[in-house]
Design goal:
By secondary structure, the chain is α+β, with helices and mostly antiparallel strands. Helix content is 28%, strand content 24%. The protein is globular and about 90 Å long.
Length: 759
């Protein structure tokens, strides 16, 4: 008891900080061979020939594989179940390369150094093809996504999403103020400490085992099966401890190749990307170019919004086809807007493919919506907080697209509590200053989902069982990405069963031992998986009370579970003793399995407040103070919740001010291809951060909890951009706000007609 709400440490914290936890590429393995990739230097090229003679002659080299001697099955790395239908436009090794960093070939050798050295000796002749590197070029390359034979055509748009809700034209006509704003966001990279890695080896039963630091063992199984053209039952996938993901490991990148090499050679195989390779050959957050028209009434009501968004998903479909709809889903959950028109499209370009990255479309659409709303507030002379409060949805609101109940939506509470704690009115009214350094404050609100409902596969099965030592085993397809979800889920089980956190033995996700689950995605772990575990724990508790009642000669309804014991009035038995008593009677130890299928998808809400200082000489922006207010329903572990928010703010500040993969518009090469060339927010760039939690409960969540992990980063960038615009009286809308962009905005304003000193 008392586990929910406790500031408990990570259950794997000690082994992590002591260095005893083995990640995928740690530790020896008998007969382990190593694979190294050769990656494309061109944005678009056909492979004319490959001469592997020099590479094969090198010591330790086992073999070379490319498109001529590997399966050419189409697959999509974003599927999460075997029979899922997504545009299958990827190949392990394609004959036509579609981005700088695409896979040309792989060398397998006895050591990683031998494999990498031999890969450099592969003699490849390329026929360069015209690349599509701009949105304009992509939108001119129109056509169906597949040809008459069903093969991918790589034409645009890949996917679209539309919404027509209410009378937008009437809203625009009735408005007292109409603002039209264009926002562009960059590609950004996950920058997880652990680069992409995989191990695979043959098992005695003829199957291939895959050890993967993944977000879903079943997704790895489905993707690899599709790529290799074999049944999923031939693949045994085990989740490895993960050294950070943020969505970057949601899609299997190396796993198909690694499993193929193990299948071909009968050897255990390891592949591990370098930092440079991780930057150019994995996934990024997609870039968008969005325009929003906002119609405001004289009293601040949003009468209508007209939104057009182009999403650059890069060279392959992956999960990018979902992004236009995903952005729409998030957009309509925040404000009560009577008329909405939305047109979104995903487009191919010959650039690094995009994928999930902490919010899956939410950071982009919120950047558009919240920056646009702030500028509309300025145009109409409304206070930004007051304008948001006038329009934010409340408890029981229904979204206009999927018609889902948004639950106990407490976005208004976040705004009100945040404004008071931040001192919004006084700080907003304070002068920005006239010297070199200018001060400004900004706000942004956000919402996000809780799982994939109404998707039919939004369900989780958990098994809890009493162990001989009195602890309880938890078997479920848990995928902790390093953020502590295993700890949170264990706390839920411990709370129900009257145990302490160490009494819950969490097993590793494994396709052989776990029931199917979607994995860690869509902010579903606490809300969906946590509720499955709570229900299973309740079932086990009933069985434990029944067994203890027999041992104590008491009525089951008089037995309570607390402190690792079953207690009935003046009698008690420790669960370890109960296990021995049951075993001595030849009785199986109690075990419960339950499946929880989602029936709702409420919204999580947040309001973030930022203060910035802008150096008008250099264009440098420093975030000096930050307040994050989150509607979490209930914090299962407040310490982990706060940690998630701090980490989300760090990612968001980088997104706002520094991060850009920086693809060359002429060559398609990635400019930000190393930590020397890709800037993130580090400790010196971080402000003082305060966190407030709104805990008003969510009836459908475990103990009232709902999601927090992804929304923590979503409002950060617009809050920072809005603060910079306030400080400078500017209209900056293109992320990141690099010093060059800030200085250029100041120069443009100084040259504007009517400006002091303007010609």
């Amino acid at each position: 008891m008392g586990q929910v709400g406790a500031r408990a440490s990570l259950i794997d914290g000690a082994v992590k900080v002591s260095g005893r936890l083995h990640f995928t590429s740690d530790g020896p393995m008998p007969g382990l061979a190593h694979g190294a990739l050769l990656l494309s230097p061109h944005a678009h090229a056909r492979i004319v020939s490959l001469d592997a003679g020099a590479a094969l002659a090198q010591p330790g080299v086992i073999g070379v594989w490319w498109h001529e001697n590997t399966p050419q099955n189409g697959y999509n790395s974003a599927i999460w179940v075997e029979d899922q239908q997504l545009l299958a436009d990827e190949r392990m090794f394609p004959p036509v390369l579609r981005h700088v960093g695409d896979r040309v070939a792989v060398v397998l050798a006895e050591t990683a150094a031998q494999a990498r050295a031999a890969a450099l000796l592969l003699d490849v002749r390329y026929q360069q093809l015209p690349p599509i590197l701009s949105h304009a070029a992509a939108l001119a390359h129109l056509g169906p996504t597949t040809d008459a034979g069903g093969a991918p055509s790589f034409r645009n748009p890949v996917q679209t999403a539309e919404l027509d809700h209410g009378d937008v034209e009437a809203g625009l006509a009735a408005a007292a103020h109409v603002s039209r704003i264009r926002v562009r966001t960059p590609r950004s990279h996950h920058c997880a400490i652990e680069t992409h890695a995989c191990r695979a080896w043959p098992e005695a039963d003829g199957r291939i085992a895959i050890l993967s630091p993944c977000q879903s063992v079943f997704a790895v199984q489905a993707v690899v099966a599709q790529a290799l053209g074999i049944g999923a039952e031939r693949l045994h996938v085990i989740k490895a401890p993960i050294g950070g993901s943020f969505g970057g490991k949601a899609e299997p990148i190396l796993d198909p190749v690694c499993a193929f090499l193990a299948l071909q050679t009968g050897r255990a195989v390891q592949m591990e990307l370098s930092r440079h390779e991780t930057f150019i050959a994995t996934r990024t957050r997609s870039a968008i170019d969005g325009q929003m028209t906002i119609a405001l009434a004289a009293d601040g009501r949003i009468l209508a919004r007209d939104v057009d968004v182009t999403v650059d998903i890069g060279a392959y479909c992956t999960g990018g086809g979902y992004l236009p709809g995903s952005m729409l889903q998030r957009m309509v959950r925040l404000y009560a807007v009577p008329a909405e028109r939305y047109r979104g499209r995903a487009i191919y370009t010959n650039t690094l493919p995009s994928g999930a990255f902490r919010g899956y479309g939410s950071p982009q659409i919120h950047a558009l919506g919240e920056i646009a709303l702030d500028l509309a507030a300025r145009d109409a002379d409304f206070d930004p907080v007051a304008l948001r409060l006038r329009n934010v949805v409340g408890p029981g609101a229904i979204d206009p697209w999927q018609h889902l109940d948004l639950g106990n939506a407490r976005g208004g509470d976040c705004l009100r509590r945040g404004a008071a704690a931040f001192g919004w009115e006084a700080r907003r009214a304070a002068p920005a200053g006239q010297g070199r350094f200018r001060r400004g404050v900004g706000v942004a609100a956000a919402t996000h989902i809780n799982g994939c409902f109404p998707g039919e596969d939004e369900a989780t099965t958990a098994t809890l069982g009493l162990m001989p030592d009195g602890r309880v085993s938890l078997i479920c397809a848990l995928h902790d990405l390093g953020c502590g979800s295993d700890t949170t889920i264990a706390q839920i089980a411990a709370e129900v069963l009257g145990l302490q956190l160490p009494d819950i033995a969490v097993t590793t996700a494994d396709t052989d031992t776990c029931h199917y689950d979607l994995g860690t995605r869509a902010s579903r772990m606490t809300y969906i998986v946590g509720e499955a575990v709570r229900q299973t724990a309740e079932a086990l508790a009933t069985d434990l009370r029944g067994a203890a009642a027999l041992a104590l000669n008491a009525a089951p309804d008089t037995v309570i579970l607390a402190d690792g014991r079953a207690v009935a009035e003046d009698h008690a038995i420790a669960l370890a003793d109960l296990a021995r008593w049951l075993t001595g009677r030849g009785t199986a130890l109690p075990q419960a399995t339950r499946t929880h299928r989602a029936t709702a998808n409420p919204g999580s809400y947040a309001a973030h407040f930022a203060e910035v200082e802008v150096d008008t000489l250099t264009g440098r922006v420093q975030v000096t103070d930050y307040l994050a207010v989150h509607d979490v329903g209930r914090a299962i572990n407040p310490m982990l919740v706060e940690g998630q928010i701090h980490g989300g703010i760090q990612i968001g500040i980088g997104y706002a001010l520094y991060e850009d993969v920086a693809i060359d518009p002429r060559t398609g090469k990635v400019g930000g291809d190393s930590f020397a060339r890709y800037t993130i927010a580090n400790a010196p760039e971080m402000p003082s951060i305060r966190v407030l939690l709104v805990e008003e409960g969510e009836p459908t969540g475990p103990f009232g909890a709902k999601a927090l992990g992804e929304i923590a980063t979503i409002p950060v960038a617009p809050a920072v951009v809005n603060a910079v615009n306030h400080a400078l009286a500017a209209r900056l809308t293109d992320l990141p706000l690099s010093p060059e962009r800030v200085v250029q905005a100041l120069v443009d304003r100084a040259r504007a007609p009517g400006a002091p000193g303007a010609p």
